[in-house]
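Q: Okay, next protein. This is Bifunctional phosphoglucose/phosphomannose isomerase from Pontibacter arcticus. I've checked the sequence twice, so it should be correct. Can you predict the 3D structure?
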Amino acid sequence: MKQLVEGFIQQLQHATEIGEKATVNFAPKKYSNIVIAGMGGSGIGGNLIQAYVSDKIEMPLVVNKGYDIPAFVGPDTLFIASSFSGNTEETLSGIREALAKGATLACVTSGGEVLRLSKENNFPHIIIPGDSEQPRACLGYSVVEMLYLLHYAGVLNVTFKTELAQTIALLEEQQSSMKVEASALANAFKGKLPILYAGVQFEPIAVRFQQQINENSKQLSHVNTFPEMNHNEIVGWLHPEPLFEMITVLYIRSAYDHERIRLRMDVSKKIFESKAGKVLEVQAQGSTFLEQAFSLIHIFDWVTVYLAELNNVSPNTIENINYVKGELAKV
């Protein structure tokens, strides 16, 4: 896992090359809505794209994480399925339903049944490298190729390409300082319950961080967003009191946060400081959304690798996930 995190910049570069060289043809069409289907790392990639395009496209885009797809899916839907292995059962179920409803399908995968269906039905698709045994470390491939599919479908303009290039340059420039920041955060999380708070637009980054803490560091974490948490969770900071000293709160801040969200975070911080063991902050770097999102993702991936070392666990193993899959396969 450490080598995969180290190679994240190269992954983004390679993903861009794949996207540029992809031979993808969409029939000219005006879509009414977009659905991205995926689970785990592929699913969170969809959420990241959803946040990125929220102010760039005029049609609704939803992320589907389950077996069934929304009732509105039909001939005017662009349905993008992302599955690293190509055998994710929930995503395959969605593909078959979307196909039956006449949607335009496109896929990102390394192989498996998704690739077979794509070739059999002539879906536009982009193939990503499948040699990694850690799909969650391949977020760069899934996000970048989905951006290219949206572009080739005529939904997204070319601006994202410039932002990707700027993102890669930023990561190259700040790699060393990111590792230092990540090491400090890992030490702050050791033996604690990390509670991650972000503005709503950066929820995918916070959830991704939580997932990586779970899978890489074998540790529990919790996520919520502003302003929503101000309408419910904030009241819960009364009990259980013995837990509070075990909590490290991390604020994930961005220049993209709405001014009222920044104010809410400032006001709420006083409550957390009076309760939690520690309250820390991290500020997203860069001027564009992709720069800020990917820089945070890279820092947080390093945190989880360092935290795995502190927890004396392997960041590669996912025994409980394999157990669940094995039991499901028996039915």
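A: Here is a summary of the prediction. Residues 175-310 form a domain with the Rossmann fold fold (CATH 3.40.50.10490). DSSP finds twelve helices and nine strands in the chain.
Q: Noted. On to the next one.
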